[in-house]
Amino acid sequence: MDDGALMERVSRGDREAFTVLVKQYAPVLERFAIRLIFQQHQAEEVAQETLTRAWLKACDYDPKRARLSTWLHQIAHNLCVDILRRQDRELPLAHEAERGLTAADTAENSMSTLESKNMIVKAIAVLSERHRTALVLTYYQCLSNREVAEIMGVSLRALESLLVRARQQVKVTLEESQ
Amino acid sequence: MKRSSFQKPLSKTRAQEILNAYGADPERWPEDERQSLIQLLAQSPELQALRETGAHLDGLLDEWQPKLSCSTDTLISSLPAQPQRKQNWSDQLAAFFFPGYMAWRQAMLAGIPLMLGFIWGLSGEPLADDWTETEFLIFNPPLEVITDE
To answer: CA-nearest residue of chain A to B33?
Structure first.
């Protein structure tokens, strides 16, 4: 079922269509939120709130203007930015990231893998919110550069500048921590 | 969304910008520059080296795959009621002039076939021509000619 048809059904209160939407996008949105705010519980809330808003505002979705994935990421991004601004916790994120990751992954990974993961997570956590968002949307969320630029409200050139800077900074942080 | 299949000619500087921004995976490169960059890469060892550096960082970034705990059952079972759908302009206009219009709309729609049937029944020719003489006289009484006599 295409985006437009699915959301048309959702806008008419079709719970079966909404279940399809949830199964498809809840994991994608939760992963996106974890990578931006580094807190499992809040990331889950972001995914749920995004999908609840999609249910309530399904009439506003226009498939001619954006893919459903872009629209949902835009809502989730705004929610994540609100959380980050409210808590003003860009600096403590590295610690938060390490704590969350260690708790979840220790049982399944060897120490060397875990250390390597921790380094990556920390390197991403110390990025500014704009640089992190550009990197996460482009690298992990399988969105095109045009879609990422649209979600962030920037030009393609500005997005590329953010990406170059983000990748450079991650590289430097990883080199420093080795 | 429409995507252009037109491939822009690419300078070496632009190729470096793309590799530095998007990394080594062609899937992430801008679609309208992808083919040109692939062709340029085949001819330039310098760009190939830059791509390898990008691939190393891509590999490290790939290692971070967070665990999920998303429980969707609660979300689906506790959905709030949806707001009413927006009326189109003709409905808004009708509701403004005739406040009870929306309540009567369905009844009016249901009445349309009834009205059409009634009109058609009145205006149509009789369907059967096998009337008995008595029926014919009842439904088509002879006209009396009134004279002054």
So the answer is: A145
